[in-house]
Amino acid sequence: MADDENVVEEEAETPAATESESAITPTELDKPLAPPKYEVRPSLGEKFQSQNVREIIVTTMQEQLMGRKYRSDQAPRWTEEIANRVRQRVQDLDMKRYKILVQCIMIEMKGAGVKCAQRCMWDPETDDYVGDLFRNETIYCYTVAYGIYMY
């Protein structure tokens, strides 16, 4: 009985050894690798479309805010709607591999000054941003859209 067990173990090891030897042939090792299929930079026509995005921002703010008076209870909803609409319309431009971020700030006009600043770390050759301002008697609204190229 001990002899039968040894025979079974030897037979089980033999097919695995032949499969690994036949899996890689010398001709497959000599083939050059295909060039990578990823793009590090967008082509000229696929860069962030600043002018189109600016038009989207301006029209969206005008559609949402024209003829309105500032209301503190409605301002958060208005800014959220503006940001979501701008982001959706910019994404419809189909700029491939761009992550779109939109920020909208709205305050009441009461004669006080406002200073806004932004700082980002990015690649100036591919990434960009566009912002625009809407003002009327009671509303001051600044919307900015960032386009960050995803490597």
Automatic annotation (TrEMBL):
Q: Name one Pfam family in it.
A: Tctex-1
CDD domains membership? DLC-like_TCTEX1D2 (cd21459)
According to the record, the segments passing through the membrane are none
Which one GO biological process term can you cite for this protein?
Answer: microtubule-based movement
Gene Ontology CC entries for this record: cytoplasm; cytoplasmic dynein complex
Would you say which domain of life the source belongs to?
Answer: Eukaryota
> Compositionally biased, Acidic residues: which spans?
1-13
Single annotated GO MF: dynein intermediate chain binding
Question: Which residue stretches does the UniProt record annotate as biased composition, category Low complexity?
Answer: 14-23
Region of interest (Disordered), ranges = 1-45
Please give the family membership noted in the entry.
Belongs to the dynein light chain Tctex-type family.
Which protein is depicted?
Tctex1 domain-containing protein 2-like
Q: Which organism is it from?
A: Bombyx mandarina (Wild silk moth)
The gene that this protein is the product of is: LOC114245471
